[in-house]
Sequence to fold (260 residues):
Amino acid sequence: MRASITKKRVLITAGSTWTKIDDVRVMTNIFTGNTGIKMAKHFAEMGAETTLLYNPRINYARRVINLSARPYTTFDGLKKAMEEEISSGRYDIVIHSAAVSDYGHNVKQLVEVKDSGLNLAPGMRLFKEVDNIPGKIKSDLPELTVTMERTEKIVDFVKKWDPDVFLVKFKLEVDRTYEELIDIAEKSRVASGADLIVANDLHGSQNGIPPAIILGSDEMKIVDKRKLLASRVFNVIDWELKRREENECATCRNGRNRRI
Fold:
């Protein structure tokens, strides 16, 4: 039987967002984007019309049929790209695997005030804090403060931008038990209105936790090998879409029977 995802339009995010400190420095995380890249390549090769939002520091699967790509670097850039793409109503499925910054920043540089008009005691100097430094921060500053501020959860906007899209969310935890990971993932799935969530633990292999667990509203699939993740996610989505189509057909038939 032909996969339900074939010819569906899929948006996949991959890579990590950068938190800009100045024009040459950023803060980011350890994740490479390989999961999202493999996911995009697999879906495209299986016939889905796939769009990849990616950080340009990673190599995506160029020249793959059915795969187009759009770069981003920062949190704001990713959010803007996702809103534009999803709000267009073009997509049937969104797979949000990008490692998004949980905290933004507010960089404050101490700058000496030369002409304050104050009568300072001999040897005293006056400094002020300056926000959002352009260019490159000097390397000889006595102190640099970076204040981290919590960012919005981009994934929580997806269903607001398009309530009908099938949403797959990713959830990473660290040093959780199997039971804790399942509980946290399910709560996270519900909070975002996601149809599926892919959960994993950074040190899971050391604690007997499988490489990934796929959770839906009434199903759970274990992925025992990470290299199989893309195909397993594809298969679970495909099965879920077929089940929904069958339910819709049954509802239509029942409606016609009642009118007869």
